[in-house]
């Protein structure tokens, strides 16, 4: 079998650790904290640290109930070791992302422990990492890499419990599952149960076809199944105990309104009728192929998945269902996908914990397809050419971006409007490198082995991501970097000047400026102007939609998220709208 052949030096952890380092370095070093999510979460961590309020998160001096505290605690751990700084908070999600790659490898090896199937585990992590959406999102200071890690930790524990067969190792595995549920809840709330409970409850459907080493064949009788489901119940209880060890004291300190928010409104309420991100039930079905780029444009992968002919021949996806490991992955992915599709609130990153399962399934199908092709002596015809479409896709994507950037700049000379003011800062020439790399791989990429092709396409995808960061870096800093205005606010705060803004405040400036004073908020410009009259030394922030002659009178003015940010005082008042 091809999958049992010796692997190349970079066909394994060396490859994906190198790719991880390059992608994360680009994500962290080449862009600022992005408002409003990243700046909001780092501000919550800052206010908890500043006020020594480690039980109850706060935002702008008010209780913050939208997210549990584990991410903030991880940030605090970095600050406790290295002092308060801008860099260590940005390492939390990437380090959990790296741990997710190792967990992906571990789960693949648990599903297929034979050395003949080692290739599945080696190619799955780089496929996870260099999926465009995962690569960009895994460098964001958000919660999803944490909840993904605890999902994978729980999945690995389930497989360990099944391997134990009710004997030695059973209870340690289920205790680990319970801890994964508990810390997953501290990372992002009860949603961790959606990621873990369905696959645990469906054990009779995957367990009877899941095989490990031949010598492990424990008896699966009625007593075993009673113990299995009792163990799941105990694991859930452990998870609740871990989560409640924070939630109960936090509810006591935060008060009844905070208790109602963390126990109901931010979890069950979101599932039943979301107050944000409401989308139709089929939304994920349309979006998922885009989120899995560039792998979803690889014909070799779709040949491995197969169509109706493959299903009738019992190969491709049907072979995955007949295989124990493949069935486990399908029963992990599909119920979670359906559950999230039925929940009202939807965001693309909600499904990130299932991306490793999808890529492990893809890796399994690719390796089995390669083995069939070799057995049928059709390697050249079936495999050799298929690296070209994804390579050409990346080259074409780079070319389209270059044309769009410089074409828009050309149109801007005619003052047609609708051109973002920061577009002239995009350095589109960086995209020539992935364009050339994609063209070169499409022309010269002759490797037939799936490991070599995954390594080549992963490296090319990494090139696209890194050089896209390089191209966008000046524009991102111009339109999203709030450090300069935050430092000005700090100077005004030190001088005793109050500040406020028009519109809802999301914590954009508190951490970046290390501010101690809450930001005032006004619903209308008239209210804010009246406040300026009552506070002659006050400072007011507004967010105008366009740049006008009045903008030159502002104390400070910059691009901001497709709009503008302007600062005014009593001597330089904002123009009436």
TrEMBL record:
Residues 67-204 form the Glycosyltransferase RgtA/B/C/D-like domain. GO terms for biological process: lipopolysaccharide biosynthetic process; response to iron(III) ion. Keywords: Cell membrane, Glycosyltransferase, Membrane, Transferase, Transmembrane, Transmembrane helix. InterPro entries: LipidA_mod_glycosyltrf_83, RgtA/B/C-like. The keyword Coiled coil does not apply. The chain crosses the membrane at residues 15-34, 91-107, 119-136, 142-162, 192-207, 228-248, 281-303, 324-344, 350-369, 390-410, 422-443, 455-480. It holds the Pfam family PMT_2. It comes from the Bacteria. It is found in: Cell membrane. The keyword Transferase applies. It is a multi-pass membrane protein. GO terms for cellular component: plasma membrane. GO terms for molecular function: pentosyltransferase activity. PANTHER family: MANNOSYLTRANSFERASE YKCB-RELATED (PTHR33908), UNDECAPRENYL PHOSPHATE-ALPHA-4-AMINO-4-DEOXY-L-ARABINOSE ARABINOSYL TRANSFERASE (PTHR33908:SF3). This is 4-amino-4-deoxy-L-arabinose transferase-like glycosyltransferase.
